[in-house]
Design a protein that fits this description.
Oligomer: single chain
Number of helices: 5
Order of helices and strands: HHHHH
Helix content: over 70%
Number of domains: 1
Number of strands: 0
Largest sheet: none
Distance between the termini: 22 Å
Radius of gyration: 16 Å
Structural class: mainly alpha
Amino acid sequence: MLSGRKIHRIIIWLGVAILQLIMTQVVTFLVSLPFPRGMEDYPQTHPDLFVFILGLTFTTGVFLTGWLAIRRHWITLKPKYLSRLVFTLIDAYVPLIVALIFYHPLEPGNPFFFVSMLTSVAGFYIPGWIDQG
């Protein structure tokens, strides 16, 4: 049976994971602001650049939020910042590259964008899961 303390940790972990998903969108929005015409035509005209930017913004949103959560002791994880960054980066790009290969041209609402966000969040936690296994 789960104790109150364990339930509290699970709720905080889920809150941080949801915040990481939200921050992928916030960082993507902030990065799109400097582009004069916006980024709405980039999936069709520059799909490689679009995937590169999305991968970076997803990684930045997930990693910085997770880093802050570890530093503020919201979640108790071993830091391992470099391995967390690498796994987050890899897990953000793999679905985007698959989408680039199979869904050319990329269109808004492509399910691989959401898959990329979810796998990048999972990638942040993989170094901790490897230690426990």
